[in-house]
Amino acid sequence: MAEGDGSLLMNPAGLIAVGAARRLPLVHLVLDDGVYDSTGGQRCAGGSVDPTEWARDCGYNDVSTVTDVEQLSRFLDEKPFSHSWPVFVRCLVTREADPPPRVTHDLADISASITAFMASAP
């Protein structure tokens, strides 16, 4: 599972649920760039929040922080996919591009599109 730091700050329910499922083989990556890209790149208010501490407090026993691509690659090569418990990884990243544009479609149209797609699934 991958999410941004803003997503985690806005909705930590997944962190709480996964941490409570101590026998869930899941790798939870948080891409932490300190901004809310989906709303225009504003700084996250969570500068004083350490998501690894949140993860520990929620029940994750295996918690790490990586600071570059090589470190993440080594971590993923050696560790998490053979475990039968949740693993939390905070990936400190830098923002290299402008935030993506805001969604311009009407919410009702998006909902109808998803509903139609799900209805056509086998």
From TrEMBL:
Record-annotated Thiamine pyrophosphate enzyme TPP-binding domain positions: 4-90
Keyword vocabulary terms for this entry: Decarboxylase, Lyase
Alphabetized Pfam families for the sequence: TPP_enzyme_C
Name of the protein in its database record: Thiamine pyrophosphate enzyme TPP-binding domain-containing protein
Source organism of the structure: Streptosporangium oxazolinicum
